[in-house]
Queue: 2 jobs
Job 1
Amino acid sequence: CEHPKNIPPYPGPNRMRDCYCTVNLDQEEVFRTKIIEKSLCPFYGEDFYCEIPRSFRHLSFYIFDRDVFRRDSSIGKVAVKKEDLQKYHGKDTWFQLQPVSADSEVQGKVHLELRLSEVITDSGVINHKLATRVLECQGLPIVNGQCDPYAAVSLLGPSRSDQAKKTKVKRKTNNPQFEEVFYFEVTRPLSYTKRQFDVEEEDVDKLALRVDLWNASNLKFGDEFLGGVRVPLRVLSQAGVHDAWYFLQPRENGGKSVKVEELGSLRLNIVYTEDHVFPSEHYTPLRDLLLHSANVAPVSASPAHTLGEVCREKQEAAIPLVRLFLHYGKIVPFITHPVSLCRDPNTIFRGNSLTSKCIDETMKLAGMHYLQVTLKPIIDEICTEHKSCEIDPVKLKESENLETNRENLRQYVDRIFNTITTSGVRCPTVMCDIFFSLRESAATRFQVDQDVRYTAVSSFIFLRFFAPAILSPNLFHLRPHHPDPATSRTLTLISKTIQTLGSLAKSKSVTHLSVVFPFFLRFMIKRAQGRNRFGMKNFKKRWFRLTNHEFTYHKTKDEKCKDPTQVFPPLLSPSPLLQMFQVIQPERALYIQANNCVEARDWIDILTKVSQCNRKRLSTYHPSAYLNGHWLCCKFSADTASGCTPCTGGLPANIQLDVDGDRETERIYSLFSTYMTKLIKMQEACGSKSVYDGPEQEEYSSFVIDDPQETYKTLKLIVSAVQTLEQQHTKYKRDKEHPIGDKSFQCYIRQQSESSTYSI
């Protein structure tokens, strides 16, 4: 999230606003920026990354203003349709802010069944009636923390003024099961002698069924509109039956007329990827080809290097490659193999090569918790103390003293440098393996330089790991937000100094033991156990703390763990109701509600991982709650009854490197498929180099091809594997059911008809 501009001024003498931005999946907030005070063009510069745990229709960004009474009012929004996300992928784009209207804030879908039938009256007259069955809804929005939906059904026509028929209200669910049928008279009574189905064409064209979803509110302002659909009766087939899912749509002309240009605009950089992962055997050819990259000579002919050559940014190739090689334990030879080709020991991993990007990504993935333990405490202190460390006389303020600032900087650098150099026992095993292999490879390659085996490691870990984390702590999850300008300047000076010290250091050893898993602290809501005489099960807000030894909750954030409110081994099972999950104790289940779907997913993932070592893990669990004297899932009345659903299998014990190899291979396939035209160009370049040994053609000059024949062989194998997977994806998308109103499927059908087949 970058920054908005030209926000309308506040209607008062101050005119400035205190604004923040939220990121929403449809209407569910999953991230919030810090508040920028007194600005109409606030700059946020904050990055937010998450795995999306559910389907959605819009990725939305809302700009809010907080007034002096700490009340939040919406200024405008940007809503990007899911099918349009690829158009803005990886690009800085300005979006016009749109007005926020309750009638336009819709999400979810509804399942309808329409059936036209003949009804013969006692007098022998045939009437045609429409039976409308409202079966269920999925993914309705949660309004003010609740969702009590009902459906209103009406038949629309030029001369109709029928009152809407309503379903029963379904309490506390955003996936209601209605299963209710409503009848409407469609045509004028026909003679009993006229047996065939006969509806006048002009009548059918003018009739439509409308289904609106509402949230039954207890507030005096009335019920909230959740979305609706309008189904023309001409969709009925010859059999007179129509059964389909429909995406809910906004109410027509529901919002106020607001000039869009008056609301300002918002600059965003959105990176969105979506993968459909098949069973593992489908990826065997491509996966084996990629994992063989470390054994291919020259390096430029390897499949991994080829991916880096065709991608627009080497970073998008590095991320799935590193995760794949980490998962299969081949990251060390893959990363250190190019050292044998380096000519200058001072430039090892300092370029913008694929190997450099892979090194950076490996350090981020394997060393994130190491950074948390090592740097976070002192980074937090620097960001809260606001001590000036400016040593540039030109930038020095009148009230500042150069010697005092220099001493502040020296103290910070001393503490950080000492913290880093004494943190060897916490360095992850995979990082130590990389450093050892890097040290040995550098010593073999540059035998004349006796110090290169140490400087290769020390300069690397400072230059590409610690220094960037100090410079931008928010990008490494050391701080929630981008630091203010003064603190950012302090961190820049510390980072540069640490980088210089690291380049000159002669560290003689790197020790490694087990990694220390830091505590995880969040604010959530838990359900009380109902142990009082009336059995009340109210929900209470609590702070939850997770370490690698225990999971505790407390009434306040700063409450000490030595005397916790409750301690228990985490045995976990998820529940989809309103971002809730349950942690099962020997005597009961604890129900916990997270703030949003992303946070719930994070908690479920991390609790599942740390509970793998529990000896008393359950084999079955109850996926629903125990209410009104029975389990909602299996209807057993005993609260101690054994679970009715099998638990999932175990996960890898290594918490830091839990990677889905098939998903990463699918991501690599998607990149190869996206850049197929470049693969073709690269094959042509190989042929040109093999046949014509002269000046390189300009269109092929961007490719690094050291051995045309070996590279051509690799390209041929890549294209074959990609085309096989492409056929699987085409079949999957063609056979998948899509709700009416799903424009992403319509886009796919259009692309399939327009695309041409590649022949290599």
Job 2
Amino acid sequence: KSEVRDDLIRNSQPILANKSQMLGMPQFGLRDNLIKCELLKNEDAYTYIKNYRCGWVFFLGTYNVNGQNPKESLSPWLASTATPPDFYLVGFQELDLSKEAFLFNDTPKEPEWMLAVYKGLHPDAKYALVKLVRLVGIMLLFYVKAEHAAHISEMEAETVGTGVMGRMGNKGAVAIRFQFHNSDICVVNSHLAAHTEEFERRNQDFKDICRRIQFRQDDLTLPPLAIMKHNVVLWLGDLNYRISDLEVDHVKDLIAKKDFETLYNHDQLKRQMDEEVVFVGFTEGEIDFQPTYKYDTGSDQWDTSEKCRVPAWCDRILWRGKNIKQLHYQSHMTLKTSDHKPVSSLLEIGIKVVNEESYKRTFEEIVRHIDRMENDCIPSVSLSEREFFFQDVKFMQHQAKTVSVYNDGQVPCQFEFIPKLDEPTYCKPWLTANPAKGFLAQGTSVDIDLEVFVNRSTAPELNSGQQQLEDILVLHLERGKDYFISVTGNYLPSCFGSSLSTLCLLREPIQDMPLETIRDMKSNSQVSNPETDKPQDIPKEIWMMVDHLFRYAKKQVRIALFSPLLAGSNHSVAEALLLFLDALPDPVIPFSFYPQCLDCCSDSSRCRQIISVLPQCHKNVFNYLIAFLQELLKHSAHNRLDVSILASIFAGLLLRSPTKQDLTEKRKVKEFVQHFLVQTPSDRDIDEKLPE
């Protein structure tokens, strides 16, 4: 049970020697940080690597189950070793392919496969479930021998979707990180983009997962930990890399001859790793088993469907780190539930362990040394620069500059960016300093990244000229003086984050308009010349995006909105439309109407009455977008869209909550929008608003 599982982890009290543990501790004061810093520098004096011949054995397994229920014992896969492993890390993909799992991330198959795994574990040991994490059909289970649980700490889990719209969970990854003794370990289970020709999309999925998965630390003021910041990284899953440049019959002939070396030379993942495009620094064991995809379900026969897929090693296991030895890497052909075969890898991993007597002795020596130090000197640092200018900052495009801080004083120092007088935070919301606090030993330096990022919350005031990219950072030294860093820049106004009413008044691109003109328009909605300055019915930017999708993508399968695997401008335009709607400072249905919309969500006529009294430009945009979505539904035989899917995607954008929504509100918002996707006679006049 989860309560028992949590107790196993929380009772762990590892000795604080590892760097990530140290920096994750609450900041007590200069003396405490100095002790931690010295312990880190002298770590080799009290730790040793317990490795190969006496190391810990990790069983890694991956299985794409193609939406099937468990129909056979998993023991031939999970209990295939002579002796029981210390750890099980078992990953599944396509656990559930139903629409409900996709939309609500809920599936009855989770407990079914959990039970199948539990029954399939090695019978000669007792195991505790430490963690389960799932995103739609991607699931990772972490079991450990009960006697090792007390040495596991800092358990965290994260998920990231890279599927529909580059965000949804039909593709993506789940990951866990934990501390075992004094080693940081991260495990990733991923399901990357499909289809032979989409290897570059798979490469991008890998990079997105590495960039977007960030594990929080106990001290929330410290930056989160990325995947590659761990001592050991274990990566498994359906990576979907295929065999290139060979016909299917040639591939099958090589498999029959067991000429895996020739076949492996045409493997996309091998080629991409050789070119150092993805998985840089990772290792994969020698593949001496036949491809694990694609079989006829329930058999060992290659795909006999009309598509006749070329066999491929889609299911892979890789690792990154030191003191790791692979004991085996194999597929398990006896399992026939899916069109994939499961794969396993047995790794022996050297773990950093603390010698408690040596630790105590080192700690006492450090404390005695600090007691002898004179700490009456004032800390001092020098900065590489004090003025920074960010040129041509754009909406949601990250820019960063680095300031080096060097401790040129006689004593260690602790630094922190502090708020200015009467301000709640140390910087404006579009600016961050990373790290924002830290510790510097004498004669050392740290690089601080000053990062500028304008999002939907900060763009409106920058677009209108009410705010500028200007801020002063105050770098404070404990027991020392303050240093001031000037950050300025110029922001290029964008239609993203601009109001509908403002955009309707603009006939030129917003970047070509003087800020004074935009400010005047925002403060004075009256037009000076009714003939030339008459507002447009809808912003030209919305018309251009919808017009493109209407002309070129309305019959496309799930349109570009629903398949980032479809390359080209349709996907880009669709994502831009969704981002545009999400960034509106006041949504299509303004915030002031939100409570009324929830109250009448079950009454179609009252819903339509609310739309009729919206401000004119908001009403025009709503009717225009609804007409476009209705047009998409007319082609559902081709694009496979339905009312539920479109409502799930667009409801939260058209009718956005001013605060965080709960599940009940989300359902009401979806119900409200669904009324308009079912066309009635009163809707026919808005068809005229569609591009011809």
